Amino acid sequence: GRIDPLEQVEVKSKASGEIIELPIEEGDIVKRGDLIARLDPRTAQNDYDQAQADFSVAEVTVRQRQRELDRLKTLFDNKLASESELDNAKLAYEEANSRLVRAKAALSTVEERRRDTEIRAPIDGIVIDRPVEIGQIISSGTTTVTGGTLLCTVANMKQVFVVASVDETDIGKITMGLPAYITPDAYPDKKLIGTVERIAPKSKVEQNVTVFEVTSLVDNADDLLKSGMNSTVEVVTDQAEN
Q1: What pTM was computed for the model?
Q2: For residues 62 and 70, what is the distance between their CA atoms, to the nearest angstrom?
């Protein structure tokens, strides 16, 4: 059998840029929300400052157009302004409102882009792979056809799957929920108790033998089992006492 994490996430960045901080190493324990990497924020910060300025101008413009519209309404009620002047004031106010909505949307977008320069752990787990280094230029995982640069892989190893191949002559004896005894090759004196969780509905051929993959779930609270380890799996199909 091969040991696989119960939950495993490949962490990529929504933003592109240069890695300026990378506080994790392979084997580190991380909690959800912990900093994985920080990218150079200068471009994102500049875009944010410009969008903030545009939004402030749009807000002031709306207030100014509102005052002009109120003034024209008063003049129109007193027959001191024409209807076309009032219509023009209404149009200017609506145009200012439209620019304010666009400025607000642009500000929200660049603010999210600025936050994306900090990449954080999506789950609790252990870092099992970290193929990047500080100073490396990475590509976005959402805007590139290649799928972006892999920053690290985080796995929850508190429970693990053990995937074993069972010959078709034996598969009929195995049902879900049966106890499975796992003996890791790295710890031949240890026998961990698991449960059969899944039986593959489709066979595959290994060395001209038809087999089915049987997946067992095993607790790994002591962190003995590592991703990719090999182990022997015994499934008890029947037993009699005394």
Answers
A1: 0.70
A2: 12
